[in-house]
Amino acid sequence: MAKIEPITGRYIYVPFEGTEYRIFFEEAGEGIPLLCLHTAGTDSREWRHQLCDPDINKHFRVIALDLPRHGKSIPPGDWYKETEEYKLTAHFYSGILMAFCEALGLENPVVMGSSMGGNICLHLALHHEKDLRALIAIEACDYSPGWHLDWLHNSQVHGGEACATSVFGLMAPQSPDEYRWETWWYYSQGGPGVFKGDLFFYSVDHDFRELADKLSGNVPMYLMTGVYDFACTPEMTEETAQKIKGSECIIMQEIGHFPMCENPEVFKKYLMPVLDKIRAQA
Amino acid sequence: MTQFDSSWMAGWRTLVNENEVLGHVGKHLNADVLLEFGDTSYVVSFRKGQIVELEEGVSPETCWNFGLRGPADTWAKFCEDPPPPMYNDIWAMAHPLHGRLVFDGDVKVLWQNLRAFTWALDRMREVKG
Q1: N or C: which end of chain B has fewer CB within 10 A?
Q2: In terms of Cα–Cα distance, which of A193, A215, A213, A195 is closest to A203?
Q3: Which residues fall within 8 angstroms of residue A4, CB to CB, at 6 or more apart?
Q4: 8-state DSSP, A45
Q5: Are B88 and A157 inside 8 Å of each other by CB?
Q6: Which residues of chain A have a CB within 8 Å of the CB of B91?
Q7: Residue B16 covered by a domain
Q8: What is the pLDDT of residue B111?
Q9: Chain A closest CA to B8's CA: distance in Å?
């Protein structure tokens, strides 16, 4: 009997601000919708372990999408005529996510994202709290400067190798080599300028320093950060969590910026209690 | 032998030159690199991923392509196995949030060779003594 994973992948057409985006997503399981957001410059493959985990997908409909320009989600058809470099904004990011949820008919999903996917959770909490069940913001804080670098998109530098190696040290040395280098592989496959463009959101457009304490606290928010994350340190997450009413801050030992894919076993120990709380709340 | 002295660096050089992965990924690593460990500096000359020359000290006549400058105790933490958080990677140490390491010179050459160069530096954790 062949070993086949429970993941299925499909494409959905998502209209947003006059453009129809063909978006790829993977899913597995049934239950509470759990939308998983990949990190900058990569795609839904980062969530393959959680998608396949029966302890998770027996209670949750786990869905991981590729943002436009990432993975199997093609860019807008006229991307090659763009006169400015790609820059992800909070407006587009939160808008396309909510448009995706509407197109797929997801009712009050849990959104779980890492890095830029964690930072966008703060924007979703501010603008869309009524449409969300809970937010799991991984490796997130109110401001994460320092990553919008030209070297990540330069014709004299191999973008795949440079982008992938630049993030390698964000992972904990204790994480299995196999998974750390798998994550490196994902990063080596991003389109030109996409990682850098995503980092415009991560390091520039995302600035919640004056907004974090404005969140109502009505939507439960869990902030989870690994101790080896040098881009969003545990201290940065803790300071942000102190500003957000009702939030819970979880610091994860011996793991870094990519918990779901660099060390899924360690991540699971921290994630399951959070998912149990969300289920209990439902 | 103490950490970062000439004997220690010679041990690192051997590990780099015997590393078979670097023989593959370092094919295009050709650069003269300044490594500054506090008061001690070396210019390490890489050719095709191999260290062909290791020169201690910097004079007005010394040429190099790019450099990494940092305190010796920062480098010592980088060399621990496992290294502690914030010290496990050169970009971790050099990121503007932390500033423990300075990238200097023609850093384009660093970014062009980031994979092979960091693989070579990681061999420092294998130096005995």
Answers
A1: C
A2: A195
A3: none
A4: G
A5: no
A6: 166, 169, 230
A7: yes
A8: 98
A9: 23
The overall pTM is greater than 0.95? yes
Tokens linked to B10: 């010679």
Q: Nearest 5°: CA angle at A88, between B102 and A35? A: 110
What six digits make up the tokens of A228?
């080896």
- SS3 category, B56: strand
CATH code at position B49:
3.30.1050.10
Q: Is residue B117 situated within a structural domain?
A: yes
**Total domain count for chain B?**
1
- Interface contact B118-A165, CB threshold 8 A: yes
CA proximity to A250, closest of A266, A234, A262, A265: A234
pLDDT digits (tens, 9 = 90+) for B7-56: 999 999 999 999 999 999 999 999 999 999 999 999 999 999 999 999 99
The fold for domain A8-281 equals: Rossmann fold (3.40.50)
Tokens 């239950």 correspond to A31
Contact B95 A233 (CB under 8 A): no
Give the residue numbers spanning the domain of B20.
Answer: 6-70+102-121
Amino acid at A272: M
Q: Identify whether B11 is part of a domain.
A: yes
Cβ of residue A166 closer than 8 Å to a chain B Cβ: yes
Chain B residues lying within 8 Å of A203, measured CB to CB: none
Chain B CB contacts of A225 under 8 Å are none
